[in-house]
Amino acid sequence: MATLTPSQTIGPFLHIEVPYEGEERLVDPNHPGAIRLLGTITDGEGNAVDDALVEIWQANSAGRYAHPEDDRDDVPLEDGFTGFGRCATDSEGRFEFLTVKPGPVPGPDDSKQAPHIDVSVFARGLLNRLVTRIYFPDEAEANAGDPVLSLIEDEAERQTLVARQEDGALRFDIRLQGQGETAFFVI
Amino acid sequence: MASELTRNGRVTGYRRDDLDINPPYLYPDYASTQTRAPKRPLVPMPHTLSEITGPVYGDERIGELDHDLTRQHEGEPIGERIIVHGRLLDGDGRPVRNSLIEIWQANSGGRYRHHGDQHPSPLDPNFSGGGRTMTDDDGHYEFVTIKPGAYPWQNNPNAWRSRHIHFSLFGPAFATRLVTQMFFPGDPLFFQDPIFNSVREAKARDRMICSYDHDRTVEEWALGYRYDIVLRGREATPMED
Questions:
Q1: Which of B23, B117, B174 sits opposite A6 (nearest CB)?
Q2: Where in the sequence is the domain holding B125, given as residue range(s)?
Q3: Is B115 or B241 the better-scoring residue by pLDDT?
Q4: Read out DSSP for B55-71?
Q5: What is the ipTM of this complex?
């Protein structure tokens, strides 16, 4: 087996190449069910992380991934919806996507996963990406039964993965370190 | 018809056994990790349908010259013209086909075209420093660029980054996403570069260093470098019930 290529930090100058224009918009503003998904990234001293790249990956509103390995033909694909978005944080550490709430998708052992969005965070000072998930505040029952969210034993830590409603948008702040630190996964 | 495996969520994940070649989150010699590395242990999770799928980029956003960083302006950039090529492979040596590769780098004087770079070395009006391409059916890719310069940074007194090109790879799934840096053979700055040295195993550091490729060197024009990139391999496929 060949040695894998190791991860290195994305560094502070990623904007030379990524993201591309419009990658933070997974849907048009007039798309039915369009939601603003926004947040701020802060470090262990509470300072804004102004050089991060946030990537999201999600199923469409019916719960189907636009990927050949999701071969459930009875769950519809949606024309033009890739399920992928990227956004660089601004000078105040903020990111913002326009997307739709994904449907539920199958989980391990015949379980069902609550609607969720997979997230990668890249930044200067992160030698590896950090992976987390966004869950939805109006899905308390599905969240309680979610096979991945349930892996986090502490209730307060679990809550760091549940977005909250704020003025018609969904807010998901990411704390890299310290008080209120976001739960991150090894995948 | 969907396979029963997908429907029941019994998906084939990506291997984890080799992941310890990656650097730790907290590596104090690299000062920025001290306030950005999580303090709590990360939570191991299984790969579900969400992690074995991932963004599918087509080539619709790749321009004809996006792989050639020396032809994005009216004139040619100053520097040592190089061809960087290789294959994108999985952990079993199979090609990763039709997959997006993005790169960015400093110019030959070690300066990035970026408002955050204050290094007192001139910008090159003929060099932006960003490129992208897709791998072909054999997993092969190629960029034409100039060799980036070394540059000082504020990590510690008299700290210099080894010459490098940033690489962004996707592979087939969310689980295979990788951002890394490619280094050049024999760089005398390796010994004092904590980002490079955050990878603890020598053979893993070697994986980040391209090799001089005389076969791809073009007479009277450019030096060739070979850089193969290895993403995670797949677990064995589970048996259908």
A1: B23
A2: 10-230
A3: B115
A4: ----GGG--TTTTBTTS
A5: 0.98
Number of domains in chain A: 1
> What's the pLDDT tens digit per position in A145-178?
999 999 999 999 999 999 999 999 999 999 999 9
| Residues of A whose CB is below 8 A from B235 | none
Residue B37: CATH number of its domain: 2.60.130.10
B167 falls within a domain: yes
Q: Is position A5 within any domain?
A: no
Domain for residue B169, yes or no? yes
A13 contacts in chain B (CB < 8 Å): 104, 106, 112, 114, 116-117, 166
- Check B15, B97, B119, B166 and give the catalytic one: B166
Long-range contacts of A79-85 (CB under 8 A, 24+ apart): A81/A26, A81/A27, A82/A26, A82/B55, A82/B56, A83/A26, A83/A57, A83/A58, A83/A59, A83/B55, A84/A23, A84/A26, A84/A55, A84/A56, A84/A57, A84/B54, A84/B55, A85/A23, A85/A24, A85/A25, A85/A26, A85/A55, A85/A56
Q: Per the CB < 8 Å rule, is A8 touching B181? A: yes
Residue A34 lies in domain:
14-175
Nearest C-alpha in B relative to A122:
B179
- For residue B87, pLDDT over 90 is answered with yes
Q: Which of A4, A13, A184 sits opposite B117 (nearest CB)?
A: A13
CATH of the domain at A116: 2.60.130.10
pLDDT digits (tens, 9 = 90+) for A101-135: 999 999 998 899 999 999 999 999 999 999 999 99
In a domain, B179, yes or no: yes
For chain B, what is the domain count?
A: 1
A185/B45 CB distance under 8 A: yes
Whether B67 is catalytic: no
In percent, the amount of chain B with pLDDT more than 70 equals: 94
Q: How confident is the model at residue B59 (pLDDT cuts 50, 70, 90)?
A: confident
Structure confidence at residue B99 (pLDDT): 97
Tokens of A161: 């993965």
In a domain, A2, yes or no: no
